[in-house]
Amino acid sequence: MSQDRIPLAGVIGSPVAHSRSPQLHTHWLKTLGISGYYIPMDVSEADLETVLRSLPKMGFRGVNITVPHKEKALELADTVTDRATIIGAANTLVFRHDGQIQADNTDGYGFTENLRQNAPGWAPESGPAAVLGAGGAARAVIAALLDLGVPEILLSNRTRVRAEALQSQFGRRVTVIDWVQAGNMLEESVTVVNTTSLGMVGNPPLRVPLDGLRKGAVVTDLVYAPLQTRLLIEAEKAGCVTVDGLGMLLHQAVPAFERWFGTRPEVDAGTRAAALR
Ligand code: ATR
C-alpha cells in the first residue's frame, strides 16, 4: 500500500444512510487538515468478503462495520483483538500493510470514555451496575464495566435466556434479574445503563419503573436519537448524573481514526455538533 495515496476510510452496513460516522470522521479530517475521505458504503452480506479484500487496493486504511455485518466481519478478519473476541463482533477493521485485516471492537472503550468525560466523579467500583438489555451492545458494556472493577452487574432483559447466556460468559459477578423486576435493581445501583433499543426514535419507550433510581447514580442511555430519553429525563429528576449516548458514538470512533489516519482526534463540543448535523 503506497503511503502517498489519499487515505480513505468508511463505514460498511446495510442500510448505512442513517450512520453519523461520515459527518464525524469528515469533521475530524477537516479540523486536523488531513486530505482524506470517509465514505458510507451499503454492502450486502454476499458481497462483504469481496469488498473487504478489494478496499485496501484502493487506498482504504480500514472501515467501520455496522449492522448487520459486525459478526460476519469478525469471522472474515485475519486477526482479532482480545476485546473484539470477547464481544464477538467487530465495529472497526484495520487494513494492515502486510495485507492482513485486523478486527477490533471499540464500543466498550467508547462507553467508558463517554462516562469518564461527562461524569467526572463516576466511581464504578463503588457499587453495583444495572444493565438493561442483553444484545451485542450489552456485551460490550458488561466487558467494560468488569474491566473497571464493578463489584456486581445486575442484568435484566426481556428475553431472560439471553441475559443468562451473558452470565455464563462473564461469570459470577453478573446476576440476572427478571425483566418484570428490573425496576428493583435500580435502588442499589451506582451505575445504570440502558443498552436496549427502547426509547429510540420509532421504538416504544423504556417502560421499566424508574422510581427506584438512586440520587447521585450515574445513568446513561446508549440510545442517542433522541438525546433525551425517558430514562435520562426521569434520572435527572431523581438527582442522578445523566450522560447521553452520543458521546459513546464519538469516543468509539477515536481509536479507529487514530489507527487509520495517524492522529488522535479530540472529542469536544464541535465534534458533537458535527455528528448531529
Ligand atoms: P444491540 O446489538 O444494539 O444490542 P440487539 O442485539 O438486537 O441489538 O439487542 C437489542 C436489545 O433491545 C435486546 O436486549 C432486546 O431484548 P430481547 O433480547 O428480549 O429481544 C431489547 N429490546 C428490543 N425491543 C424490545 C422491547 N420491545 N422490549 C424489551 N426489550 C427490547
TrEMBL record:
Pathway: Metabolic intermediate biosynthesis; chorismate biosynthesis; chorismate from D-erythrose 4-phosphate and phosphoenolpyruvate: step 4/7. CDD domains: NAD_bind_Shikimate_DH (cd01065). It is an enzyme of class 1 (oxidoreductase). The keyword 4Fe-4S does not apply. Transmembrane segments: none annotated. It catalyses: shikimate + NADP(+) = 3-dehydroshikimate + NADPH + H(+). Shikimate binds at residues 19-21, 66, 91, 107, 224, 252. Keywords: Amino-acid biosynthesis, Aromatic amino acid biosynthesis, NADP, Oxidoreductase. Its EC number is 1.1.1.25. Residues 245-273 form the SDH C-terminal domain. It comes from the Bacteria. One of its GO terms (molecular function) is shikimate 3-dehydrogenase (NADP+) activity. Residues 11-93 form the Shikimate dehydrogenase substrate binding N-terminal domain. Belongs to the shikimate dehydrogenase family. Involved in the biosynthesis of the chorismate, which leads to the biosynthesis of aromatic amino acids. Catalyzes the reversible NADPH linked reduction of 3-dehydroshikimate (DHSA) to yield shikimate (SA). NCBIfam families: aroE, PRK00258.1-4. Homodimer. This is Shikimate dehydrogenase (NADP(+)). It comes from Roseovarius ramblicola. The lineage of its organism: Bacteria, Pseudomonadati, Pseudomonadota, Alphaproteobacteria, Rhodobacterales.
